[in-house]
């Protein structure tokens, strides 16, 4: 039996006009009009038997109807001005009373439109509760992913389709303090519970260090204090050696584009790196790789060998008609050599240039890939969600390093046979810092290129993106436009609201008006992963992220002493946080 078993006497209005996905309903009773609310659900009679169309109220109007005055009208006694009460409704789907062996099936499609004068009913009370339960039960294929409860009906749990959420990418946005990290933690906890979970979190500020459980494994990018200690994967410390960078990334890091000799420097870097990789492969007798490798192949090489080759060219003297003369590149590589030397000795970049020679072993990359991409089942029951703390990475090369890890994940997926790919999701926290709309450096340009490619092609290779940002207007538009799922928390900035508005379907454009008034922990959720686009109150995660929210007034008034500032100064000097 259908849950929408209305009698004709329960109608609050009748359809006056129909557009593609918008219906205008005439409401004759003023008292009934007063009970209607914007963003509430309604049900309309369909032109097909056994079906009801479901819609959201977008606008309610009460307008006086002007009448033409004539001589006879002037002599008539004064009468009340007639009014036209209208309700505009955006259609969002169809509730089918019986579909095969199933009853009460909600589908996000409009197989028909209502006829003129069709009845329109309010969806509230017990019917609303039963409808929300239908939505929750028919959440799509795969294990259900619970986000929270519907604002319309707190008793009905809101589920997402986990397959479609990660296949088609997701965007989580919200102003600072709106509950964005809370929502991300809620998603991560449920991912970590899956038997073969596989996800990487780019934790830019160390917020997700509190995520605990068998499904989590925590890493941090090596800092200055890890150079002599030689801590590695077993200690949760990641070294990302320079030879993992692409040629373009190396050029952006070492070559000053403003230098008049920049083209020559880039060309000679290419030759020197290629020769260094060839020498490494020859010494290791990796003949199969030697025959097919390129400059971007992840083959180790000694940076010292590259420096020696560049220095030789920079000081080269060749035979001339009147004796020795300076070579073609004599003195033109000095700035490049200085930049290389300064970078390799910069302790902040110890993760790129580790003193431990273990990263030059041919099998070292296999261990790194197995740890980061192997999934929970590959780690013997732990480490399905890998949280990588980038908080000690210098901001000027942060995009380069985050992009390096993303490229590592995507490249491995790309080169696996299609039947062997185990899907992986990349959670990009504070995405505006390394996937910016405005390109300000070569490092950002390299990161944008890889994330754009993942956004466009990731689904084919089992790589999903979850883009998280408090400033969606500053995130690369190509990446944002490829996100087919939107979880929008409170946004107060007009530019950010415009980004969300462009992502909403035309029939739901009015939803964006709610963005500045959403409560903390409340979100507008729209996309392929949810059957009903609506407001959802996000449930509290078991382990709250370390979002750093401090109660200023309470702290100032409780009489507590100041922090140990000497410890902070010492950490600043060491370039490493002292726990």
From TrEMBL:
Occurrences of domain Helicase HerA central (ranges): 147-358
InterPro entries given in the database record: HerA-like, HerA_central, P-loop_NTPase
One of the Pfam families matching this protein, by short name: DUF87
Domain of life: Bacteria
Identification of the protein by name: ATPase
């Amino acid at each position: 039996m259908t849950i929408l078993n209305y009698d004709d006497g329960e109608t609050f209005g009748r359809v006056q006009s129909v557009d593609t996905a918008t219906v205008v309903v005439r409401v004759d009773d003023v008292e009934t009009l007063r009970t209607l609310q914007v963003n509430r659900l309604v049900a309309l009679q369909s032109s097909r038997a056994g079906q009801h169309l479901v819609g959201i109220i977008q606008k309610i109007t009460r307008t006086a109807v002007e009448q033409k005055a004539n001589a006879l009208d002037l002599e008539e006694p004064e009468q009340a001005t007639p009014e036209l009460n209208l309700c505009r409704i955006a259609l969002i789907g169809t509730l089918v009373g019986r579909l095969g062996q199933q009853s009460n099936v909600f589908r996000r499609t409009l197989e028909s439109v209502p006829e003129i004068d069709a009845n329109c009913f309010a969806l509230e009370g017990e019917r609303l509760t039963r409808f929300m339960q239908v939505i929750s039960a028919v959440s799509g294929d795969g294990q259900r992913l619970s986000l929270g409860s519907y604002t319309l009906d707190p008793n009905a749990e809101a589920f997402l389709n986990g397959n479609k959420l990660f296949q088609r990418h997701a965007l989580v946005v919200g102003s600072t303090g709106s509950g964005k990290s809370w929502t991300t933690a809620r998603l991560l906890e449920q991912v970590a519970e899956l038997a073969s979970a596989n996800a990487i979190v780019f934790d830019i500020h160390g917020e997700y260090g509190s995520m605990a459980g068998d499904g989590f494994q925590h890493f941090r990018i090596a800092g200055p204090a890890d150079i002599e200690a030689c801590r590695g994967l077993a200690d949760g410390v990641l070294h990302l050696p320079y030879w993992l960078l692409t040629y373009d990334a190396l050029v952006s890091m070492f070559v000053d584009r403003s230098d008049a000799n920049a083209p020559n420097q880039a060309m000679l870097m290419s030759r020197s790196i290629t020769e260094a990789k060839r020498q490494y492969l020859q010494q290791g007798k990796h003949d199969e790789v030697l025959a097919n490798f390129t400059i971007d192949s992840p083959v180790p090489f000694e940076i010292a060998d590259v420096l020696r080759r560049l220095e030789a060219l920079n000081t080269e003297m060749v035979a001339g008609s009147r004796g020795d003369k300076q070579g073609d590149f004599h003195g033109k590589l000095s700035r490049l050599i200085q930049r290389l030397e300064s970078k390799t000795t910069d302790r902040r970049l110890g993760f790129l240039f580790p003193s431990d020679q273990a990263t030059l072993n041919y099998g070292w990359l296999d261990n790194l890939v197995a740890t980061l991409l192997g999934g929970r089942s590959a780690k013997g029951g732990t480490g399905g969600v890998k949280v990588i703390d980038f908080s000690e990475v210098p901001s000027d090369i942060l995009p380069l390093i985050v992009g390096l890890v993303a490229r590592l994940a995507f490249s491995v997926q790309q080169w696996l046979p299609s039947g062997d790919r185990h899907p992986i999701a990349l959670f990009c926290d504070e995405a505006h810092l390394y996937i910016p709309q405005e390109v300000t450096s070569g490092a950002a340009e390299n990161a944008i290129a890889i994330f754009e490619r993942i956004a466009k092609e990731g689904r084919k290779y089992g790589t999903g993106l979850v883009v998280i940002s408090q400033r969606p207007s500053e995130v690369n538009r190509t990446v944002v436009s490829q996100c087919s799922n939107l979880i929008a928390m409170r946004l107060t900035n007009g530019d950010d609201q415009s980004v969300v508005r462009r992502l909403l379907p035309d029939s739901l454009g009015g939803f964006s008006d709610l963005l500045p008034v959403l409560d903390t922990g409340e979100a507008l959720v729209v996309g392929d992963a949810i059957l009903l686009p609506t407001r959802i109150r996000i449930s509290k995660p078991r382990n709250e992220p370390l979002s750093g929210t401090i109660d200023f007034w309470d702290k100032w008034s409780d009489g507590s002493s100041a922090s140990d500032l000497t410890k902070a100064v010492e950490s600043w000097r060491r370039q490493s946080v002292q726990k």
